[in-house]
Amino acid sequence: MANIFTVSKLGYQIDGIEILKNIDFTIEEGEYVTISGPSGSGKSTFLRLLATLLTPTSGEIIFEGKQQNDIPKETYRREVSYCFQQPSLFGTTVQDNLAFPFEIRNQNFDEQKAELALESVDLKSTFLHKNITELSGGEKQRVALIRNLLFTPRVLLLDEVTTGLDADTKEIVHKLIENLNQKKDVTILAITHDESEISLAHRLVTIKDGRMAGVTQ
Ligand code: ADP
Ligand code: MG
């Protein structure tokens, strides 16, 4: 199968400090890769580079055979969806957040689709009209996740999205992600510290001091 991403000699520097160094990495379409490593080692920076939220200071990122920076960002970000470590909701209600993916595609908000998405992560459909300030951390995390999934992306970049979820909710999110990977062929790159997620990894890589080491299980 073809590589959906080919990353070569990727580096990222800020204020003269090398945060990522010489990363070579490939991922095939439909693969599920888990990324672990110590805090501050550059994991989020790596996903943010893949997500075009940061620009590499050296090396290159090829997405589906094209240079990442040759693809219009708006098009690219619909295909490569990044879920933040700290969920960031905007506006006033849950609906404000779930309407956004429709707005950027010039589509009418599909209330039923949004309600089904809420139910898929064990949130009641009435959540749609809830004020975001009334949500717990775990609820915000799930709303942020489904906001990324209302339109299925080709690649899902997950930055510690199960941190802070209770065991049952974690299981629901695991099943949802596994299902996207298995049934919809979504390529997944997921950062985690969770031992159970690491032990279930299809392929595990670690980032340490800004360098990547491949660990195959
Ligand atoms: P991880 O996700 O593995 O915990 P990060 O990618 O968030 O690590 O950060 C890697 C390193 O880069 C850390 O030492 C962090 O302090 C530093 N860093 C991240 N963003 C910036 C920034 N905008 N300016 C300066 N240093 C940064
Ligand atoms: Mg991080």
UniProtKB/TrEMBL annotation:
Keywords assigned by UniProt, alphabetized: ATP-binding, Cell inner membrane, Cell membrane, Membrane, Nucleotide-binding, Translocase, Transport
Name this polypeptide is given: ABC transport system ATP-binding protein
Domain ABC transporter: 2-217
UniProt xrefs under PANTHER family: SPERMIDINE/PUTRESCINE IMPORT ATP-BINDING PROTEIN POTA (PTHR42781), THIAMINE IMPORT ATP-BINDING PROTEIN THIQ (PTHR42781:SF1)
Species per Swiss-Prot/TrEMBL record: Pediococcus stilesii
GO molecular function: ATP binding; ATP hydrolysis activity
